[in-house]
Design goal:
By secondary structure, the protein is an alpha/beta fold. The chain has three domains: about 325 residues, Glycosidases (TIM Barrel), CATH 3.20.20; about 50 residues, no CATH class; about 180 residues, no CATH class. The strands form two sheets. Strands 5-4-3-2-1-7-6 form a seven-stranded parallel sheet. The chain has a two-stranded antiparallel sheet with strand order 8-9.
């Protein structure tokens, strides 16, 4: 009887994976694989022949040949000989500096958990040796390499990122597609001979976990046989259990059918949606592909990118942030910097991003710019704010506090210890230094006094102190004792010093050692700074409880003047510090030029 029961269970439909019919009703009922909602952040890579002219946009061919936009026509007339065709750019797509391992390491450093590469854009050039794209692929022309295979291998061997592929359904100037379009898509030569075979090819050969479809060419999903392909993908493909897809499968499908919704490029609704969605956007404000004529102001700052991530995740979406490599295979330094900056921020704040769910409210109703995420299992709510309030007090209107169950940062020493985390809201400078310092201390039980740790401890301590000073100045009324109170609070907090694995005497020694480091620049400083700012520099140099009074007396000014100037200088110094990139190699130079 037991054997018969087991046999029945194995053969019954409940013991098998669900199968889906080639209809939107059936396909849309497929649960989205859980990994996609957990990861939150991915990198989009737009790379192709359009990276050779690298002018204006990845739509270069269309704007030049079809729309004949004057900037593009003039660019070609000025820089290329008569008769030069877009196909002539193919051999110039060389990728000689393309290093898949290096790309994988850069992508890993960004904190992203998935990557999507353009296997084929609307120009029709495939980054793999497709047998359906004769002499217009990266193995036959240009790099003479299987770009998709190389990057997929490196991503899987060196990172924990999920590998995905973008694929354009249509091609601007393919004769078969143009023929079908002229027949109002009543014929289906192009999808039958080109587009669909390519989709089956890349899924079977490279097994992507994200299939990012795009470019419907104004044709309906029935023309592309999208439901038929997706039924195979979900039922019988090698990635049927893990693959996720988007919503761009033909006219009328976007934001309505498919795995997750994209709705439009750069879609960021700012409110919760009932369906999983993705905000695909670009670091370059104007192009998805690399542009040689881009200006610095064309790139989003790290603060703007973090804001996009936080808003997107709070509202239940994923952020897919795009970069565009050069024709020779380099990820330009501006993209590398943004990726690493994002990774720095996520190393500190990732707990509030990865694996979270939308909370009952997405942003605070009292304080603008505060966004919430939620971890149900831990019963933890995260309030993410990107700027410390000018008042020094963060007021939240939506969390309902419960006495005895709500953690508070009311104790001043705890406030001091949390300052580094607060700084990370706008930059990871202080936190990065703190983590490096901890790493150095954990490798030795002795007091930190190596040159690198020495300089880093100074930077961390003084960055923390400056923020504390600024916070206290705004948070309470100034008095003759406010500076003494803050200094004593910072320097005498034994637990705080223990966080840096050093004795109080050592710390005070480091403070004293900072004086000559700054003093040797006095000539330059006195020539460049006003008397008021020199007051603040002198206070900062001495950093002792009685320095406030002595410096005020030395310069013949009131204590209130010293306090006001110090507050402004603290803000100025923080502004500079928070935008520095600190490494073990340049930390000494920053310490030496701290003023």
């Amino acid at each position: 009887m037991l054997l018969l029961l087991l046999l029945f269970l194995l053969l019954s439909p409940q013991g098998c994976s669900a199968r889906y019919d080639p209809t939107w009703e059936s396909l849309d009922s497929r649960p989205l694989p859980t990994w996609f909602d957990e990861v939150k952040f991915g990198i989009f890579i737009h790379w192709g022949v359009f990276s050779v002219p690298s002018f204006g946009s990845e739509w270069f061919w269309w704007y030049w040949q079809k729309e004949k936009r004057q900037p593009y026509v003039k660019f070609m007339e000025t820089n290329y000989p008569p008769g030069f065709s877009y196909e002539d750019f193919g051999p110039l797509f060389t990728a000689e500096f393309f290093d898949a391992n290096q790309w994988a390491d850069i992508l890993k450093a960004s904190g992203a958990k998935y990557v999507v590469l353009t296997s084929k854009h609307h120009e029709g050039f495939t980054l793999w040796g497709s047998k359906y794209s004769w002499n217009w692929n990266a193995v036959s022309v240009g790099p003479k390499r299987d770009i998709v295979a190389e990057l997929a291998t490196s991503i899987r061997n060196r990172t924990d990122l999920h590998f995905g592929l973008y694929h354009s359904l249509f091609e601007w100037f393919n004769p078969l597609f143009l023929y079908d379009a002229s027949n109002v898509f009543k014929t289906r030569q192009f999808p039958t001979a080109k587009s669909l075979p390519e989709l089956y090819e890349i899924v079977t050969k490279y097994q992507p976990e994200i299939l990012w479809s795009d470019g419907n060419g104004n044709a309906p999903d029935t023309y592309w046989n999208s439901t038929g392909f997706l039924a195979w993908l979900y039922n019988d493909s090698p990635v049927r259990d893990t693959v996720v897809t988007n919503d761009r499968w033909g006219v009328g499908s976007i934001c309505k059918h498919g795995g997750y919704y994209t709705c439009s490029d750069r879609y960021n609704p700012g409110h919760l949606l009932p369906h999983k969605w993705e905000n695909c956007m670009t670091i370059d404000k104007w192009s998805w592909g690399y542009r040689r004529n881009a200006q610095l102001s064309d790139y989003l700052t790290i603060e703007e990118l973090i804001k996009q991530l936080v808003e997107t995740v709070s509202c239940g979406g994923n952020l897919l942030m795009n970069i565009g490599p050069t024709h020779d295979g380099r990820i330009d330094v501006i993209f590398q910097e943004r990726l690493r900056q994002m990774g720095d921020w996520l190393r500190v704040n990732g707990e509030a991003i990865y694996g979270t769910k939308p909370w009952r409210t997405q942003n605070d109703t009292v304080t603008p710019g505060v966004w919430y995420t939620f971890k149900p299992k831990e019963e933890t709510v995260f309030a993410i704010f990107l700027k410390w309030p000018i008042s020094g007090t963060l007021v939240l209107g939506d969390p309902k506090t419960i006495i005895g169950e709500t953690q508070s940062l009311g104790m001043e020493p705890e406030l001091l210890r949390s300052m580094l985390t607060s700084l990370a809201s706008t930059s990871c400078l202080a936190v990065e230094l703190f983590l490096r310092l901890q790493s150095a201390s954990q490798s030795s039980n002795e007091d930190i006094y190596s040159s690198n740790a020495y300089d880093m401890s100074l930077l961390v301590a003084f960055t923390d102190m400056l923020t504390t000073v600024e916070h206290h100045f705004w948070a309470r009324e100034t008095s003759t004792e406010w500076w003494d109170h803050i200094v004593m609070q910072v320097w005498d907090d034994e637990q705080w010093l223990q966080n840096f694995r050093m004795r109080k005497a050592t710390f005070m020694g480091l403070c004293e050692a900072l004086t000559p480091t700054l003093r040797h620049k006095d000539t330059r400083l006195r020539a460049a700074l006003t008397v008021e700012k020199r007051v603040a520099i002198a206070v900062w140099k001495l950093a002792t409880p009685d320095s406030y009074r002595s410096v005020a007396k030395q310069f013949g000014v009131e204590k209130s003047t010293v306090g006001n100037v110090l507050m402004q200088v603290c803000s100025d110094i923080n502004h500079i510090l928070l935008r520095r990139t600190v490494t073990l190699g340049n930390v000494h130079d920053i310490a030496a030029g701290f003023a």
